[in-house]
Structure formats: C-alpha cells, structure tokens
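Let us work through a complete example step by step.
Step 1: write down the sequence.
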Amino acid sequence: MADTYNKQAVIDQAARWAAMIDAGDMTEGERAECETWCAADPGHREVLERMLRFHDRVDQGGAVEKTALRKLLSQRANARRVGGATLLALCLAVAGWLLLRGQPADAPAIAYHTGRGEQRIVELDDGSRLTIDTDGSVDVTLTADRRRVHLHKGQVFAEVSKNPSRPFIVTTKNGSATALGTAFAVRQTGSASVVTVTQSRVRVCPGDAPQTDTRCLALSTGQRARMTSAAVTRLPDIDPELAMLWTKGWLEADDLEVSAVLLELGRYSAIPIRFEAGRLAGRRVTGSYPLTDIDRALEGLARTADLDVRKADSEIVITPR
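Step 2: predict the structure and record it as tokens.
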C-alpha cells in the first residue's frame, strides 16, 4: 500500500502549493521550497501543473464537465473569501477529479512488487483492485482509453471495475487476458501463463494476437486456460472459490501429489524446501494448508503424508518416513 500512500501524499502536497500560488501570497522562502519539491521528482511538477491548468480545463472540457468545473470554480471563489482551509479542501477535490478524469495517453507505468511469502493488495484509481501473490512483479498503466497490467512474474488476481470505454488487460510474455467488469487471476509459470476466471468472462489471446484472432478463447466463470505465445489451451474447470483461496492465505489440496504441494509451499517459504520427488511419488493428500505459516503447513503435511521434516539454517529437508 506504500505506493498508494505516496501518491496521495504527492496529491495533497501539490494541492497545498496550488492553493498558495492561487492566493498570490507566497513568501520567497515558500517559493524556493515549492521549487525544491518540484525538482525532487518529475511527477511532482506534473501534478502541480495539472492543477494550475485548472482554468484551461474549463474551456477544453465537454458541456457536462464545464458545468461541473464552473461550479467548483464558483465554490472556490467563495472559499477564498472564507479562508485557506476551505480553499485547500476544494483544491484537493479538484485534484482528485483531474486525476480521475485526466489519465494521459502516455501515463507512466507504476511498478509493484512482493517479496517471498508476501501478498499485497493494490487499490487502483479506477476502482479496480489487484492482489499480488508471493514473489510477484507487475507494472500498472492507466490511460484514458485502457487499463493495462503487465505481469512479469508470480501471480495476480484482478477484481475489475466495469468501464466499457476502458478495457482492462493483463499481459504477460505469453499473451493477454482482456476483461470488462469481472474477476480473474493470471499466473506466470516458467514457459506459459495460466488464466483462471472467477467471475463473468475473459478473452484470452496468445502473444500479440488481436481480439479478433481465431486462436483467442473466451472463458467463463470456473474456466481456465494455458496461454503461450503461440496458442491458448483449455484446462479442466475448477471451483472458483477454492482456486482463489490463496488470496485468503490458504492452499487447498484436493487429492494432490505431495511433491506438488511442496512446490507450492516452497513459493511462500523464506527458506528453500528440498525433497526428492521420486521418493515421494504416489503419496497424495487432501487438505488446507496455511500459506502465511509454512512451519505449521509442513507439520500438517508431515502428519498426513507420513513425512520427516528436518530444518536447518539454510534449508528445510523433507523425506519419507
């Protein structure tokens, strides 16, 4: 959430500078401080300049926008008569409006990362929400005509705010998944990406293929597909609630090979988990394991699958009893 807080802090500070500049009573020291703040990051100056271009927006906007902006301007003029605090509040409101409306066509990507064992929820400006799984990395770009999330590694669950004029697209090195008003997860594996739909519909396309490409597949709730740069292949359907238990910190195993469970737990463990898959072949388990407490998960798995767990400083070794 740190990036969200930082962005809000920039907006708040820019609004304060805008209010002071607008009032025309800044001291030399305050002007120098404002310039230092703008020079510290190109984004600072951009946000401040967008606020100061507020009057120009009135002439450039549509009829509805002009009415809304003129109403705000009128309120702001009144606020100047009653004090700086009210003026600042109105500037903050204007700033929020501008940021929501005025996503530029070349908006920079914002990067989000998670460490091993960490999960992170990111609330986007458009009302959508991302849950980034352990050891993950995504770039988010919100422009006036589309919303794009590029998944570099790991897994991301997107709960998408419906907006038909701004498609929401998750891309990986293997292709794209496009949705409107839906929820779905995309996971990057070594050679492919897996798309899982938990609500509504998603269109999955390989590589850079356009939406009209015949290789694209439309997935509905509970459906999954494996995506490579050349093709999209349907996978067996799943229970959407069980598939998304990882967002609540749990791994659900339904008659899975023990080695598959250990591989998944290993993605969340700060210490590498070592085992020989061949020695565990044929051992299968069913149960729920906490992803936020790997020690407890391994204890439960050991009891169920009759395993020995040996911990050292640099690794955890799993062997059959």
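Step 3: interpret the result. Confidence is low (pLDDT under 50) at residues 55-66, 76-87.
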